[in-house]
Amino acid sequence: MVRPNDARAGGPPRDEPPHDGRVDLATAARLVEAAVIDATDRADPTARLVTERIEAAARRAARLNRLLSLGVAVTVVTAGAAGLAVWRAQRAARALADEAGLGRAPARVASGTIPTEVLSGRAIYERNRAALYVMGYTTGTLVGGCCSAFAIAPDVLATNAHCVRECGKEGTRVVTLNDSGGRTRFRVLSATLHPGYRPNAPSSDSPDVGLLRIDGRAPVVVTLASDAELRAIGPGDDIFVLGFPGRVMDPISPSATFLSGHVGRVTSFDGRATSPDATFLVQHDAVTRGGNSGSPVFDQYGHVVAVHAAHIDEEEDVRIDGRKTKVTDSSPFRLGMRADLLRGVPAP
Questions:
Q1: Which of 86, 207, 313, 348 could form a disulfide bond with 194, CB atoms 3.0-4.6 angstroms apart?
Q2: What is the pLDDT of residues 233-274, one digit of tens each?
């Protein structure tokens, strides 16, 4: 039998170089191919094992990354929900603490006493009518009026901050004494506002009070209520307003109008019930009009407890000819700034 690679077959073995070391191109190609196949067969199991392990590790890493991403997302959502719950709880706790007065410094002890002599409306009017002034302006021979004011010192009058800002833009600011026939008129030398007044906010949301310094001496000054009186104000109390309603205001020869009503409620500036030392907003129902801004509000003892500042309008959305519009009606509710706010106004 002849073996293909047997040297005794009559020639050199197949795919082996002859003894002189020279090969032709075809033999060389076959040798290279055989070497590549042999090397590939020996390396293949290791390469596949490494590849399989790498792919398995990659799959495990991908699953772990997905689980971690899901865990992070769940943690973020849970933390957000917990944060929202904590914020809501803290807000509720703060509101409850505010209503209960927790965390606030003890209120300053009220000074003064509550009077025992209750005056009639006529007695209150007679005692204070000479302390009232129309706040207005002069332009040449023209005399205009815009607000009410009242004397709290011989040369200092109290009024509203919005009156100080708006009244007198057309000319020289003046004040004319009530029932003087226009003979007692003073120039306003200077004016100041409460530093907490916010002109762009509704007048009831900040201390709407101001002071005027005049170039003369007022014949009569009002008596401001004591702290004890101010903190004792409550719903149902009688109040009296003395001032100059817009429709009947006569800036040349003014004559004040006396109005009566009752306290409806007392609140903080944001309309909340609070401790007596912070109830700066006095709601009442005396029928005031525009020119009454700056009028003194008296209690039954004839002392000033507030400065009338605004009225509350009632608004209703209605349709007229198919168009939506807002109808504003004047309500019976008026607002006064408690008189002790005047202490916070810088001297004019």
A1: 207
A2: 999 999 999 999 988 899 999 999 999 999 999 999 988 999
